[in-house]
Design brief:
This protein is mainly β.
């Protein structure tokens, strides 16, 4: 069964860091683009970062560029999202999926909550 599982969320103060993990089972990550998305309360789900399959090219939304870093370890079948300098507006449920865009993603994890608050 193809599955993605996110982990690493939590409650942090503004300015602190978190590292999220997206681990796959049932398929090999190296052939897929993997995207990170987030959904804040009352807002639509949005794409924030993505990493390519064969070329490992990366994409960042303007709101996270320079603060977040996406990486992958195909041996561990895991894609990471290092989040630094977190802000209250980063508070959301974070999801990973098997694509870079909402319309293309058809395999989602269950999400992990990130709360940034003092």
């Amino acid at each position: 069964q193809v599955q993605l599982v996110e982990s690493g969320g939590g409650l942090v103060q503004p300015g602190e860091s978190l590292k999220l993990s997206c681990t796959s089972s049932g398929f090999s990550l190296e052939n897929y683009r993997i995207g990170w998305f987030r959904q804040a309360p009352g807002k639509a789900r949005e794409s924030i970062s993505c990493i390519g399959g064969s070329d490992a090219s990366t994409y960042y939304a303007a709101s996270v560029k320079g603060r977040f870093t996406i990486s992958r370890d195909d041996v561990k079948k895991t894609v990471y999202l290092q989040m630094n300098s977190l802000k209250p507006e980063d508070t959301a449920v974070y999801y990973c999926a098997n694509a870079c865009t909402l319309v293309a993603a058809d395999n989602w994890g269950q999400g992990t909550q990130v709360t940034v608050s003092s």
